[in-house]
């Protein structure tokens, strides 16, 4: 009889943590743990069993204490971005509201294609004590609960109903997190009783495992088709998306563009693929773009879209391109490669660019086309320089961006997410070093800014400890989620946070006014249910969380405060009021489709609807 393999008796929770601690990846010639640790808030659904397992693994998998489950997920997303999806963090939350608080951050990770492992409490598998505290009962299906709500917003979902199940489920979850095409969050529901049940696991299951991220080689016929189209292009253009960085293909994209003299434009997620001074960098594209990039996009006959899902802010709701322009979409994800009748090249950006470059050897775009693009970029640079310059105008987002951009170190990381700042950073920030901009616009989630920066800072200190993480956010996002100021102080992970206070949700007020509507319920001054608007003392609030906080009254004072923050090893919060109406970047925008009233008693609303609909004339209708 064949002897049984050597086994070890562990609880389900112990097995999960032991297995995670033995997963490794090689990055730049160095082996390191694939999982960098986790963010956790304990409750009755995870403290007794998973907490016990994590206590014994503190050195291998450090656990950062969160203040809010949603912000823990944002921090995990920021961490994954900083590591270019090569490493991830887990989040653990208790059963019930603790877990449901992670839904928004799971959606953010799903939209941005980011790895994140969710280890969440669940109801008892035996159902003996049902109904339990915080259990969401479904009268017609006792297996259906809050955790099932994660199914639309994760890439992998499982409920561990027996300890042996993790032998299959954990590798499947990690395979999802590392898959370049299907990358996204993975969810494991952990019933409270099952977490503590034991099983005799094969010792070999916990052997050290070295993972590699798969590079998908493109199909030869797809490369040939793309080459045939590109060879006859008279006005080619490259769109560089966030996938370029995740594929570690920045050098390949730059070499490809240089060899064939093709102008490059960047998406919001693809900001910082090229330095601002690179002669082929024609600027950001789309609704929050640049005149230079949008003008050549409107004239391009062949568009090579690399590592982008072509969302509406990139495409101007599909008005940014000529209707007869052809798109070559290079993407590891088949879903993204086939949009709007694009000629798909399903494959890794690094490999695909190399093979496509070889297939069009000798081809160069007409010099007059590149000269036009560079002339347009030079004009855009002049506009940006004036836009960010302090002067007699009211203080603005752009001025704050310009001050910080001029004083920061090249490797400092900039984080923004929601409100008006993503547009202002995208349009006005001049990239000083590759991969240093995180404008979270996949889900554009208010509250990501500080939390995501905290996660990025944890990763940054592991990679580039001499650099800073800089956060731009408005007062609206600050009020939405600010508790990770406290997290950064507690964990000694310094952030520089700029709170630009415009008195409410000013960018949505701008959209409201631009569509003919009256200001209503966005700026504090325009909320009829607020009889006497109260100004929050952001400086005092941030200081109460342990930050070094200061309020400045103009961009000059902002610069001095920023330099003080740079020279410190403590988290700094710098507050400055900006005008809610003046100082917006007015150039560089494409049309963007929003729903406007087809009928109204307001002349202004009717006129705005007519003007807005006129932009639809250039919209590609899926062809």
Automatic annotation (TrEMBL):
Annotated Gene Ontology cellular components are: acetolactate synthase complex
Q: Which GO terms describe its molecular function?
A: 3D-(3,5/4)-trihydroxycyclohexane-1,2-dione hydrolase activity; acetolactate synthase activity; flavin adenine dinucleotide binding; magnesium ion binding; thiamine pyrophosphate binding
Record-linked Pfam families: TPP_enzyme_C (PF02775), TPP_enzyme_M (PF00205), TPP_enzyme_N (PF02776)
The cross-references to Gene3D superfamilies, in alphabetical order and at most eight, read: 3.40.50.970, TPP-binding domain
InterPro entries named among the record's database cross-references: DHS-like_NAD/FAD-binding_dom, Myo_inos_IolD, THDP-binding, Thiamin_PyroP_enz_cen_dom, Thiamin_PyroP_enz_TPP-bd_dom, TPP-bd_CS, TPP_enz, TPP_enzyme_TPP-bd
Under Enzyme Commission nomenclature, its number is: 3.7.1.22
One GO biological process from the UniProt record?
Answer: inositol catabolic process
> What is the protein's given name?
3D-(3,5/4)-trihydroxycyclohexane-1,2-dione acylhydrolase (Decyclizing)
Q: What residue stretches are annotated with the Thiamine pyrophosphate enzyme N-terminal TPP-binding domain?
A: 39-134
Q: Which domain of life is it from?
A: Bacteria
Statement: the UniProt record of this protein carries the keyword Transferase: yes
The Thiamine pyrophosphate enzyme TPP-binding domain extends over 436-575
What keyword terms does UniProt attach to this protein? Hydrolase, Thiamine pyrophosphate, Transferase
Which residue range or ranges hold the Thiamine pyrophosphate enzyme central domain?
223-356
- The organism named in the record is Parasedimentitalea marina
**Family that this chain belongs to:** Belongs to the TPP enzyme family.
């Amino acid at each position: 009889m064949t002897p049984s393999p050597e086994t070890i008796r562990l609880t389900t929770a112990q097995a999960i943590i032991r297995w995670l601690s033995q997963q490794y990846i090689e990055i730049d010639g160095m082996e390191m743990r694939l999982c960098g640790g986790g963010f956790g808030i304990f409750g009755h659904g995870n403290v007794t069993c998973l907490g016990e397992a994590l206590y014994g693994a503190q050195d291998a998998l450090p656990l950062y204490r969160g203040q809010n489950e949603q912000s823990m997920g944002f921090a995990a997303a920021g961490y994954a971005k900083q590591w270019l999806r090569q490493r991830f963090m887990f989040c653990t939350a208790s059963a019930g509201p603790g877990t449901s608080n992670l839904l928004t951050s799971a959606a953010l990770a799903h939209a941005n294609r980011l790895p994140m492992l969710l280890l969440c409490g669940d109801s008892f598998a035996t159902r003996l004590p049902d109904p339990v505290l915080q259990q969401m009962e479904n009268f017609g299906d006792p297996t259906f609960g809050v955790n099932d709500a994660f199914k639309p917003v994760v890439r992998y979902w499982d409920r561990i109903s027996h300890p042996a199940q993790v032998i299959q489920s954990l590798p499947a979850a990690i395979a999802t997190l590392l898959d370049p095409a299907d990358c996204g969050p993975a969810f494991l529901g952990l019933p409270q009783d099952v977490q503590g049940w034991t099983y005799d696991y094969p010792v070999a299951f916990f052997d050290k495992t070295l993972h590699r991220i798969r590079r998908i080689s493109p199909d030869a016929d797809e490369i040939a088709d793309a080459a045939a189209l590109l060879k006859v292009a008279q006005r080619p253009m490259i769109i560089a998306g966030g996938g370029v960085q995740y594929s570690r293909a920045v050098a390949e994209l730059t070499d490809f563009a240089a060899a064939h003299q093709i102008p490059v434009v960047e998406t919001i997620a693809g900001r910082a693929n090229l330095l601002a001074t690179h002669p082929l960098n024609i600027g950001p594209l789309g609704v929050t773009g640049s005149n230079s990039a949008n003008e050549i996009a409107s004239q391009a006959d062949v568009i090579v879209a690399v590592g982008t899902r072509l969302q509406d802010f990139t495409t101007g709701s599909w008005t940014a391109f000529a209707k007869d322009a052809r798109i070559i979409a290079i993407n590891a994800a088949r879903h993204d490669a086939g949009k709007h009748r694009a000629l798909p090249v399903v494959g890794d950006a690094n490999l695909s660019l190399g093979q496509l470059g070889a297939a069009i050897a000798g081809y160069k775009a007409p010099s007059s086309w590149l000269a036009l693009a560079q002339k347009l970029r030079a004009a855009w640079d002049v506009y940006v320089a004036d836009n960010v310059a302090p002067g007699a105008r009211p203080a603005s987002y752009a001025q704050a961006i310009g001050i910080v951009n001029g004083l920061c170190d090249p490797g400092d990381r900039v984080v923004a997410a929601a409100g008006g700042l993503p547009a202002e950073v995208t349009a006005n920030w001049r990239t000083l070093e590759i991969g240093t901009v995180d404008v979270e616009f996949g889900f554009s989630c208010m509250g990501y800014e500080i939390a995501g920066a905290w996660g990025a800072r944890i990763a940054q200190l592991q990679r580039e400890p001499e650099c800073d993480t800089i956060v731009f956010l408005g007062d609206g996002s600050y009020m939405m989620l600010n508790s990770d100021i406290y997290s950064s102080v507690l964990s000694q992970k310094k952030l520089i946070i700029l709170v630009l206070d415009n008195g409410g949700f000013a960018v949505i007020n701008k959209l409201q006014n631009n569509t003919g509507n009256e200001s209503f319920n966005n700026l504090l001054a325009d909320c009829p249910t607020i009889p006497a608007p109260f100004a929050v003392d952001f400086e005092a609030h941030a200081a109460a969380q342990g930050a070094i906080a200061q309020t400045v009254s103009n961009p000059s004072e902002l610069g001095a405060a920023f330099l003080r923050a740079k020279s410190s090893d403590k988290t700094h919060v710098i507050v400055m009021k900006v005008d809610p109406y003046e100082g917006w970047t007015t150039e560089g925008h494409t049309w963007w489709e929003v729903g406007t009233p087809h009928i109204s008693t307001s002349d202004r609303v009717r006129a705005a609807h007519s003007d807005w609909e006129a932009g639809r004339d250039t919209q590609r209708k899926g062809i």
